[in-house]
Specification:
Four Helix Bundle (Hemerythrin (Met), subunit A), about 70% helix, mainly alpha, Arc Repressor Mutant, subunit A, about 5% strand
């Protein structure tokens, strides 16, 4: 295995300082000249290391007399978007079978059921109702149905009122839900999905965690069954063509 270049090592060291809290949000990093002296590197190498950190949204740069490189201050919404993007890339670049993806996605969401039922507020229920209304529209495109599906489940997770859960589930829902919809849309029943979504909404409204978990389990069973049936049909069709 080749040894990482110096800019990668410097970026990793600075990243560790940020993660460990030795450098905190809005702290100004040493100047390029000071970092070059500290690490025994050229200023070009330091600039490359800083570019790597900026690409990870760990630092921001500012021009002018009071400029320099500063530790970035992330908010939850920005972090969730980055997490969802990274999860989507990981799934698209690595083979994950449909059943495994389904199980992971719904197991994570079921873990939120009790907290969502306990902490939900009227705004969360309103968002879920609004998405159910969208999903019931005649002639709604598959793309729009998928987008509404994602928003519905994000509203459910956000009902936990726990930003860490919302962050962690952003990747599972926004990466895995479109994948499931893409595979199952030709055979799924929107009416069945609407019924299960309605049951989930009613469970959250009633603060009934067991009913919410049951609705998610039904949705997992239905989605997995449709997806695996389609995959088997496609395999059979390919085998018939090659025979």
């Amino acid at each position: 295995m080749s040894k990482p270049d110096l800019s990668t090592e410097i970026a990793r060291t600075l990243r560790e300082d940020i993660v460990a809290g030795r450098l905190v949000a809005d702290d100004r990093l040493p100047s390029e000249a000071d970092l070059a002296e500290q690490y025994g590197a050229s200023r070009a190498t330091i600039r490359e290391a800083l570019k790597r950190l900026a690409a990870q949204n760990l630092i921001r740069t500012q021009r002018g007399a009071f400029g320099g490189a500063f530790v970035a201050r992330l908010d939850w919404a920005e972090a969730q978007a980055q997490h969802a993007t990274m999860s989507t890339l990981l799934i698209s670049m690595n083979e994950v079978d449909f059943a495994t993806a389904c199980h992971a996605r719904f197991a994570l969401e079921r873990a939120c059921a009790a907290t969502a039922c306990q902490n939900r507020e009227a705004a969360h229920l309103d968002r879920m109702r609004a998405e159910l209304s969208i999903q019931a529209r005649p002639g709604l495109s598959d793309e729009a149905f998928c987008a509404s599906d994602v928003t519905f489940h994000r509203a459910f997770v956000d009902a936990t009122a726990n930003p860490i859960l919302s962050y962690q589930l952003a990747g599972a829902i926004e990466a895995l839900q479109p994948l499931m919809n893409m595979i199952t849309y030709t055979a799924r029943s929107r009416d069945e999905i609407l019924r299960i979504h309605g049951d989930l909404l009613h469970a959250v409204e009633a603060r009934d965690a067991a009913a919410a978990e049951a609705a998610l389990t039904r949705l997992e069973t239905y989605t997995t069954g449709v997806g695996e049936g389609l995959i088997l049909s496609r395999h059979a069709a390919r085998s018939g063509q090659s025979a």
